[in-house]
Amino acid sequence: MTLIATFVLLFLYFVLVYCETTVPWYENLPAVAMDYKVHVDPGKEDCYFQYVNPGATFYVSFQVLRGGDGMAGFAVRNPAGVIVHPYQWKASSDYQDTSATGGYYSVCIDNQFSRFASKLVNLYLTVIRYDQWENYNKEVEDMNLGVDNFTSRVMNVERNINDMIHFQHRTKSHETRDKIMVEDNLRYVQRWSLFQIVVIIGTTVVQVYFVRKLFDIKNSRPRV
């Protein structure tokens, strides 16, 4: 019986370890923020999946940094497959769900309307679990510590910090897009300036050559 009990315990241990490794590593974290720069080929659609805890606040934003007309399609589907943010052809857009359904949300970037130009897109996602602060408050109350005001202030600070992070991300995305646009314009101006310089020099050389040809006098001897 001792060997059988030992075998059962080892089996349960490995089952628990395996089950723990199959869930996302960030499932128990109070907040998760992810920032990506993705490349979408012309005529293609790329979708990305983000796990969201039940009741958490899910926020996602995108902005086209480079390519074509500077716009792309953007849509969000909840874990049930319902489109909660319909497709819109824009340069930037965002979506927020304050009481998200648990599961994997699908975020899709559509570039099918652009047949020749690829797009560089900045994608920003956050998952925030405000219920973690409530659990902390309950634990403090169980310890008979009167810090309700402190906990509420900490929660307000946390919310304000998250709002500031979102604002900073949007500002950073606009700054990155402006920088890329300036660099593209600089390369465009340099290329055309060099081309025009070459054309002007070539035209000048040709004009000088033909003007000199007009004044060429051939030596000829008079016939006797």
UniProtKB/TrEMBL annotation:
GO cellular component, one term: membrane
All residue ranges annotated as the GOLD domain in the record: 45-127
Localization (cell): Endomembrane system; Membrane
Keyword set includes Transferase: no
Primary subcellular site in the record, as a coarse category: membrane
Signal sequence region: 1-19
Stored Pfam families: EMP24_GP25L
Stretches that traverse the bilayer: 192-211
UniProt keywords, alphabetically: Developmental protein, Membrane, Signal, Transmembrane, Transmembrane helix
Recorded topology in the membrane: Single-pass membrane protein; Single-pass type I membrane protein
Superkingdom assignment: Eukaryota
InterPro entries: Emp24-like, GOLD_dom, GOLD_dom_sf
Family stated for the protein in its record: Belongs to the EMP24/GP25L family.
The name this protein goes by in its record: GOLD domain-containing protein
